[in-house]
Amino acid sequence: MENVRREILELRKDLVRIEQRLRRIEREFLAYSRVEEIRSELKKEFPSLDFDDDLLELVGKLPYNPVERDREVIREAVEWLIK
Question: Which pTM was predicted?
Answer without folding.
Answer: 0.46
